Amino acid sequence: MPHYTAAHAQAGLKSKLPPLERWPNPYPGYETTLEVPEFTSVCPKTGLPDFGFLRIRYQPKRWCVELKSLKYYVNGYRNLGIFQENAVNRILNDFVKAVRPVWAEVTGEFNARGGIKTVAAARYPKRGHR
Amino acid sequence: MPHYTAAHAQAGLKSKLPPLERWPNPYPGYETTLEVPEFTSVCPKTGLPDFGFLRIRYQPKRWCVELKSLKYYVNGYRNLGIFQENAVNRILNDFVKAVRPVWAEVTGEFNARGGIKTVAAARYPKRGHR
Amino acid sequence: MPHYTAAHAQAGLKSKLPPLERWPNPYPGYETTLEVPEFTSVCPKTGLPDFGFLRIRYQPKRWCVELKSLKYYVNGYRNLGIFQENAVNRILNDFVKAVRPVWAEVTGEFNARGGIKTVAAARYPKRGHR
Amino acid sequence: MPHYTAAHAQAGLKSKLPPLERWPNPYPGYETTLEVPEFTSVCPKTGLPDFGFLRIRYQPKRWCVELKSLKYYVNGYRNLGIFQENAVNRILNDFVKAVRPVWAEVTGEFNARGGIKTVAAARYPKRGHR
Amino acid sequence: MPHYTAAHAQAGLKSKLPPLERWPNPYPGYETTLEVPEFTSVCPKTGLPDFGFLRIRYQPKRWCVELKSLKYYVNGYRNLGIFQENAVNRILNDFVKAVRPVWAEVTGEFNARGGIKTVAAARYPKRGHR
Amino acid sequence: MPHYTAAHAQAGLKSKLPPLERWPNPYPGYETTLEVPEFTSVCPKTGLPDFGFLRIRYQPKRWCVELKSLKYYVNGYRNLGIFQENAVNRILNDFVKAVRPVWAEVTGEFNARGGIKTVAAARYPKRGHR
Amino acid sequence: MPHYTAAHAQAGLKSKLPPLERWPNPYPGYETTLEVPEFTSVCPKTGLPDFGFLRIRYQPKRWCVELKSLKYYVNGYRNLGIFQENAVNRILNDFVKAVRPVWAEVTGEFNARGGIKTVAAARYPKRGHR
Amino acid sequence: MPHYTAAHAQAGLKSKLPPLERWPNPYPGYETTLEVPEFTSVCPKTGLPDFGFLRIRYQPKRWCVELKSLKYYVNGYRNLGIFQENAVNRILNDFVKAVRPVWAEVTGEFNARGGIKTVAAARYPKRGHR
Amino acid sequence: MPHYTAAHAQAGLKSKLPPLERWPNPYPGYETTLEVPEFTSVCPKTGLPDFGFLRIRYQPKRWCVELKSLKYYVNGYRNLGIFQENAVNRILNDFVKAVRPVWAEVTGEFNARGGIKTVAAARYPKRGHR
Amino acid sequence: MPHYTAAHAQAGLKSKLPPLERWPNPYPGYETTLEVPEFTSVCPKTGLPDFGFLRIRYQPKRWCVELKSLKYYVNGYRNLGIFQENAVNRILNDFVKAVRPVWAEVTGEFNARGGIKTVAAARYPKRGHR
């Protein structure tokens, strides 16, 4: 019997989260990195908490993300059941939709579970084969 | 109600600051990095202080920046209300105007606020899409 | 008399190990790094244990590796006689067969033996000459 | 009134220093890095000492630098008034003249003055615009 | 009077050392790094010992180096008079002759002498100008 | 107006939490340290999450704490409103009641809030004035 | 002529600062450490800013310090001219008066000035000769 | 239902292990610390491996422990089911019996399980209450 | 023939140095640590420079040391021939005479010479046998 | 068959080594620490080299050790067969005989052999039971 079900792989992908706000960027053409060491969510399989360190890098175009709304958005994952890799990808998608950057990257480093540590990194727009 | 106003996004962009001086460079064609760990400014939204670590890298052409004037220039932000990302971009613009380098980069690593740490990096001349 | 035999070089390459499972990836196009600090196997020459730190990086296509099965798979090396370099290469091959990634890399950093530390790194698909 | 004079910018550029010696390189085509953590000179403006960490990287052609002569050469800066950036550039020029390498780089990391740390890096032959 | 003689520059280049052995590589196309923190030799000028950290990276073709023979080979330098840069280059040459890799690199980081630390790095096959 | 109320200072002190279990200690007279890097609770004033690193040291008498029950007990704070200092003291009291150690210490290092980091340390039995 | 005047040594000792608040401690007999990495004040001699890292350790009796009021109190030094050692001692005195702890210690580590770093540590009640 | 049984708490306490040997100490009155970073055993409850770092400190009287026999003794735990705290205590007892030191301490730092890391420290002869 | 003469052991003990100044201490009973990473002097035997890190700890009574005068005092060793251990002891004696502390300690960590690093620590008043 | 013989335990205890010299101490009553990171000797059982980091701490009475003679003395162990613990004890005895300190300590941290690292620490005069 496998260790997962299809429901686990879809958990949390569509749940409602607090909105990401933005402010108008007066200096187009630079880069920002946001480090969020206090990410936590819930494993949809075991119900136990996951902990991670998020890093969001982006080049703002017309907008910068508003930090207080980012704090509430990230806090929205606290009791959400979602796989670690899926959380990273959803955060990237929500960020791109709200802030419309030239490019963006989201990396999540998660604390070890079962002796194995996971780091997931997603990027917009997608790059081709390395 | 959003967390910001247009006035916040423009605060501090035009305020007068001490001038950056320069000395004649006898060896064109090398690079200099200046690390300034004691940057502090004020958040225009909350009135509370921000703290950051600046790093200025540049390739001098005819001029090198004079360090004592840089110290007073940076100290000019101490009671200035300005967003962190805007401070980094303004410092780059003021530096380029005063020193006329071949190229220059300014990076600001700011202490976490609301559990989120911001790093902003601007460059002259602008590079294209990565 | 040389220090090895052909049997040593082939030991453990075909032994049966617990299967690697997978779950369907809803977000193609990102990267995952899995760190496994608790790898241990047995030297086929001396019968003494080896200890290593594995790092698996890959870009999932249709599947992600299931972590619990990876834990049992890695644990399967605990009493297996196999050279360190061969373990790294076999893990890569087994991983690629089970998970069908766009690309994958396996790195093993092994504790020093005889005062010498070995790090082996294999990649799929193979790259040309550097 | 500016903080410098033209004399400061030229100080120490022509002063006599102990010679750099060399030995014949039997293996052309490799790289050497020399780390010199005990560089000290004098600020021509204030008369106070500067302290720095030099790093010299080069690819020897027919000659390698002799280390004892390098020690005496570096010690020659101990009571010399010279700007930090100028010291780095002069060391590169003197090194290239004596050792005739394929290429060479000199980096100087200097202890902070006025809360600002300077790192200067020069290279032979000069590279174009990054 | 210079600090060296031609004899110093040639010392140890031809001395006999224990042979490097090899075992057949079943997985062509990966990389191995071997870290040897306990290298010691003798300075041919002063007769005093040198200490260094060797790092050997290579891509095995048909053969992998046998570690026990490498340990004895390295130990062969213990009472050999040879310049640090020459030791690194000779190790690379001996390694390539015995193991026939696709490529190989040898780096030696040596403890400071006279306040100056030397790092030498050689590579097979030689690369062109950087 | 002060920043707190009496209700904040009492929040979470009596809430029900999962029980701590124990197993019989065959070797009286030694010490154990348990590090729990993933503690999180909620600030009763702001409703925002707190994050901390717990360290529990004790000398078992007849019983050792059972680790799985400790994991569930700690996880019970995830959605509990309680001041950081109060959480540390309550954990000590609950631990002593369940495990009956010769002595015990609980230390909590909490992530900075408002630029200030709190570390609280409680001990059973209480010590006199330092 | 000496480098100081009596006025410098008394500067800032009596200036008004925001009040320190407190909340009732339900668990007497433990210790708290508060780390405040963002202290800044002004040198009364040069008018230039000082930067420091404060650490406040205390054993609460009936009261704990309220953190938000501590943040505003520390921020009150931002434009105050006061010697570093005096700031540490005044903070201890103000803290003891407001919070009435069993004991308290204040340590300030200040960034180097003139190449010299100062750390000052004061304690209530005073201890005898070490 | 509790998470353990009495059998788990007794597992591995009496199993046969390779003997510890000793050599005669010519210099009574000093201390030795032995660090063993490669300890591994098996959890008697889950059958999964545990990994730890052992540190043995002792003052030899008439005998010193022979290191090769210690290596084989430690390796004897590789497939033994035993709780981490019990392993530390058993190693101390076996060591004291074989080597007869003036005093000895054994500390085991074990990799986290369920997000909790355990460190156990036992000492011969037992000390009184701290 | 021994490596030293009596003159070496006495060199620099009586040479004139810039005076240490002081300011009146308004808060008796605390401790100060001064870190001076840029100490340099000259070896009286070889004429080559020594480099060290000084740490001065003291409890001020009526006076605190004035930092600018300390900077010039330390700089007075720059071209003084004196053994490292003697420099540490002389600095302690000069400091105690000028500042009249309750107690004081001077520690000097010197860069390695001949592969050996020296740390010397002197204290006023002298303590008895450890 | 045991792993050692009585001859191994006595090897190197009486071999002749270069003499330790001394210079007259003008400042009785302080402490010196000498760090010697480049100790190497030979294992009398295997003939293979050992590597270690020595630390010598002492309180000079009438004499200080002369560093150049210490360098040659330590180098005398390079081809000497002696157990690690015995080397530490012999160095202490030779040091005390030559320098006549108030007290002295010698610590040797040796690189791991067979996965086990040894640290030995001896002291003059001997202390009683801890």
Keywords:
homodecamer; two-stranded antiparallel ribbon; alpha+beta; GTP Cyclohydrolase I, domain 2; four-stranded antiparallel beta sheet; 130 residues
What structural class do the secondary elements of chain A suggest?
alpha+beta
Task: Quickly give the CATH architecture of chain A.
Answer: 2-Layer Sandwich
Residue stretches of chain A low in confidence (pLDDT < 50, at least 5 long) are: none
| Pair of chains with the largest interface and how many residues each contributes | A-B, 27 and 27 residues
CATH H-level homologous superfamily name of chain A: GTP cyclohydrolase I, C-terminal domain/NADPH-dependent 7-cyano-7-deazaguanine reductase, N-terminal domain
Give me the CATH fold name of chain A: GTP Cyclohydrolase I, domain 2
Q: How much of the polypeptide of chain A forms β-strand, as a percent range? A: 35-45%
- Residues in helix, % of chain A: 10-25%
